[in-house]
Specification:
The chain is an alpha/beta fold. The protein is 34% helix and 15% strand. It is built from 9 helices and 11 strands. The chain has helices spanning 32-42, 64-77, 111-114, 116-131, 152-160, 182-202, 221-226, 267-285, 295-298; strands at 2-5, 50-54, 81-86, 102-107, 138-144, 165-170, 206-209, 230-231, 241-243, 248-250, 259-260. Strand 9 (241-243) and strand 10 form a beta hairpin. The two termini are 24 Å apart. 35% of the residues are buried.
Length: 310
């Protein structure tokens, strides 16, 4: 899956965001010409199931509407779908763009982080989605991190708008969390995740895991049985190609340097390069603590947690 970063800045400054390390001091906005270059390159790929639209915050691009219209046209021609990744604050003007083939994942930050004015704007957008019968094209997610004020706000929001699934990730060990001990980090993350999972279970809400899952070995068998409402438990990174406006790419902004996509003929070549030249070496180097004697780590069915530790 390719993600196209249509700009490199945001209207928020979340304390945990690994993309902060890649956001430059000068603003970078994708142009129509750059978008066409990227789409022409992607057109050489036989099958693309979904194209992500990322930033920064994509909805603050001044040409966001026309970009989505162009991407929808491309997706229609290539039997693909579009997913926008947003904080949801500036969505209200764009709701009519979303449909069965163009969805949005809204990362829901705590009201104390985004401010009450932005929280009201987010709620306004969700109510407009609801009024237009378009909530079904949206999903919500949360990033858990050590200093999060609490997570009940997203439970309340899910109940208010009848979301039965929440996307969840524990923040990558980047930015201010660099250099932490992996075992200590995951023990802390496990407890917070278990607390969150229990509250979700009490409210009949399933969890769809994103990246940086706590490795399975940190849980007991009984705990894993209790977490059956948690889905998509990934034990290995796969290369999601994040593409910048100037045709650079990475498999993860939190863990890898950028490579020039012009050296590859299509998406499959880029994915293979990122998998074998970037991800695999970091998997091998990620051996620490329990991983040393673990068969799952040795046969690469588990990579030992987030590769940003490397």
């Amino acid at each position: 899956m390719p993600n196209i970063a249509i700009l490199n800045y945001c209207n928020l400054k979340c304390p945990y965001c690994f993309a902060n390390e890649f956001i430059e001091s000068s603003k970078q906005l994708i142009t129509d010409e750059q978008l066409e270059i990227i789409l022409f390159w992607l057109s050489h790929t036989e099958r693309i199931e979904k194209i992500g639209v990322i930033g920064g915050e994509p909805t603050i691009h001044p040409n966001f509407k026309n970009i989505i219209i162009r991407l929808k046209q491309f997706a229609s021609e290539h039997s693909s779908k579009i997913c926008v990744f947003s904080n949801g604050i500036k969505l209200s003007d764009y709701i009519k763009l979303f449909d069965a083939n163009t969805g949005i994942l809204i990362n829901i930050n705590h009201p104390d982080i985004i401010g009450q004015s932005n929280w009201k704007q987010l709620k306004l957008s969700l109510n407009r989605f609801k009024a237009l019968d378009k909530l079904k094209y949206t999903s919500i997610g949360i990033n858990l991190y050590p200093e999060i004020p609490d997570f009940n706000y997203i439970i309340d929001l899910a109940k208010e708008f009848n979301y039965r699934v929440i996307r969840c990730s524990y923040v990558a060990p980047t930015c201010k969390y660099k250099g932490v001990d992996k075992n200590t980090y995951y023990l802390q993350a496990k407890q917070m995740f278990m607390d969150f999972a229990n509250v979700c279970k009490e409210n009949n809400i399933d969890i769809n895991l994103d990246c940086n899952n706590v490795p399975v070995c940190y849980f007991t068998e009984d705990e894993l049985i209790d977490l059956q409402h948690v889905h998509n438990w990934k034990t290995r990174c796969e290369p999601v190609v994040d593409i910048t406006p100037d045709m650079k790419a990475t498999a993860c902004f939190g863990a890898y340097d950028l490579v020039d996509l012009n050296q590859f003929d299509n998406l499959e070549e880029a994915e293979n390069y990122l998998l074998f030249k970037k991800i695999y070496p970091k998997r091998i180097a990620n051996c620490a603590g329990k991983c040393a004697d673990c068969k799952k780590f040795q046969n690469l069915s588990c990579q030992g947690g987030c590769l940003a530790f490397v």
